Amino acid sequence: MLKKILLAVLVAFPMTMAAQTVKIGVIDLDAIVKDAPETAEAQKQLQEAQTKYQGDLQKLQEEAQKAFDEYNKLKADPATPAAILERHEKSLGEMQQKIQTHAQTYDNDLQQQQYQLMAPIYDKIQKAAQAVGQEKGLTIIIPTAAAVYMSAEVVDVNPLVKTKLGIK
What we know:
By secondary structure, this protein is mostly helical. It is 76% helix and 6% strand. The longest helix is centred in the middle third of the chain and has 55 residues, at 82-136.
């Protein structure tokens, strides 16, 4: 008797699992981020910072070029003492190191600024997607790029999320 009950449960279990519907939504985050009005302002701020940093680096490179030209003039003069040449070589090395350090610092700062400016945009999109998922009874929403195959039952939530965010 116990075997019959266990067999009935084992046969019925897959059927009950199959009766549950899994609803999947897909979202193209890049498209929504691109269309978000806050993105343009964030990109503008990043571009301004990048332009400033490039200007600073350009000034440093011009100073280094002047120092290098002066070094070459001194090196071409046979009367220039070796100690002066060594001092200029050391100075050129320090300038090059300074340029590299500044470039790395600027890159890191731009990445940090980008994160700080874009994080609220992604957070807002995530909250809108969660709300759409709950409203539509979706089990999961995945990025469109992660889907290898999509059947007709998959819900494209982009228009719904854009509407929730007020994006046209």
